TrEMBL record:
Keyword flag Membrane: yes
Record keywords: Membrane, Transmembrane, Transmembrane helix
Organism field: Ligilactobacillus ruminis
Name of the protein described by the UniProt record: Membrane protein
Membrane-spanning segments: 6-28, 40-57, 77-99, 111-132, 144-173
InterPro entries: ECF_substrate-spec-like
Pfam family, one: ECF-ribofla_trS
Domain of life from the UniProt record: Bacteria
Amino acid sequence: MREQKNSLRAIILTGLFAAIIYIGIWVLRIPVPAMVGKPFIHFGNTLTAVAILFLGFRNGMLAGIIGLGGFDILNGYASTSWLTMLEVVVVALIISGLFRAFKYNDSKKNIIILAIAAGVTKIFTSYGTSIVEALMAGTAIKTALVASFFSLPATVINSCSTAICTPILYFFVKTIFASVQKQGR
């Protein structure tokens, strides 16, 4: 799918992934108390990583922006949705860059490395996002740094689930897609 960015199939799959990402957050959302923001545990990051791996940088990133950003806009997080969308761009850059470095070899080992990289990247981007959110609320910089650090538990849980679930979902989606393509011929 990476080569056919503008094909009808790629556009439909981008929309489908965006919807699945949105639903993945909406259906399973477990709030976690935090000093900054209103974090919660969800599968949106995992599904975004799968979309990026499967659809490529541009379409996977668009699916993540629409799914995660759309959820934020429609569910009370509109003022910080731009930060979520920016996080998706950073994660997409990291995953796509590493995948390109691996010459798009989707061996189990490489996909696991990519999933771990996505999880770790998300920890750093969420920390930065929390700092910006705290500063937007008028918090002093030192307080924002400390409060944002103590607001990371939900992100760490999400990142661990991303590292574990992304390889499983990627190979599941790849198998389904191969089966559908085989039946279409």
